[in-house]
Amino acid sequence: MSAIDPQRSARPEVNVVVCTDEYGCGRWYHRGRNAEAVLGELQAAADRLDGERVQVTTAGCILGCTYGPRFDVARRWSGEKTLYGSITGEAVITRRGRVRFAVIPDNLEQALSDHLEETSVPIQSLGGASRPADVDLLRRILSDCSRGSADPGVGLAESVIMVHNAAATVSIPATLDNLQFVDGSGNPHPLGDIALLTTDGDGQVALQLSRIRQVEFLYRQLRNGLPSYSIWLRDDDLATVYRIYLRRSENPANDPLRHRLFMDLIEKYGERVTL
Amino acid sequence: MTYIITEPCVGVKDAACVDVCPVDCIYTTDDDDMYFISPDECIDCAACEPVCPVTAIFAEEAVPSMYEDYIKINYDYFSK
Prior knowledge:
The complex is a heterodimer.
Chain A: E1 14-19, H1 35-50, E2 54-59, E3 71-75, E4 80-85, E5 89-93, E6 97-103, H2 108-115, H3 135-147, E7 158-164, E8 169-182, E9 194-199, E10 204-208, E11 214-221, E12 227-234, E13 240-246, H4 254-269, E14 272-274
Parallel strand pairs in A: 1-2, 4-6
Antiparallel strand pairs in A: 1-3, 3-4, 5-6, 7-8, 7-13, 8-9, 9-10, 11-12, 11-14, 12-13
Chain B: E1 3-5, H1 16-20, E2 26-27, E3 36-37, H2 48-51, E4 57-59, H3 69-77
Antiparallel strand pairs in B: 1-4, 2-3
């Protein structure tokens, strides 16, 4: 057995691969940046975040040229991968099949920090800690997830809710059908600050809406070819506190509708929403 | 051309290469003691090379002489 290079023994949480193919994507500019500029910004951002948690490397063509810089972010801790380019939305790429692109954001340090398992980036970087969270917007997002956008709509329905704190994660099978908002006394109220979801065993999961600062919709293709749909909710410290993963529907006919709804939600709100 | 995984991977199987590979062309099984790159699927992007913590991955024409046997081992793995 070989010894692991001590210089690189810290297993990064996130690997960033930047395409620097001089005959392809790297020659074009997107919002004033080419591959070299993006690479420089990513390396600087990785150093500031903590060089051992984020590893930025270069590669030749990684497929999926979008007429501009391209990079992939692999979250090693979750097995998910995000493809960044000069477009947003779905595309079909040779050998990679159908993938979803996110447009390269202006703030690459923020983008990288969002991929870390637990981020320490303070909320100030999102625009000020004193600003109250937009609870109305979060209510609308959750309602759309629950009821769908059509009338009568198919909601995201069967899911697994993962609740995190610093020491533990709990996974709870639940449905998004029975979303309810309640006030501090537990009484149903359309403008209540607490969202209640019913679990499969008729239990309930309560979510304090005012404590959520960011919502992210993640659609990924897993290594086994199956799609993965998840919604990540983060708190003031941008630590993930609540995740909702979709399960397969008990009615397979609903799965294409749920896929469409998930894509519509991304279209409507964007992949990442700051509240 | 393709990339070849060599002896330093044996028993380590860190899998960083698997995570970054844009075309998912790196394979193993629980019974294998290392990873293998499919020469037919590899797109020669080199993304896997710098992330390997044990410097086990080389371009085919750059495999050190002491690891040359692994070129055949990699090819043979996919011709079973």
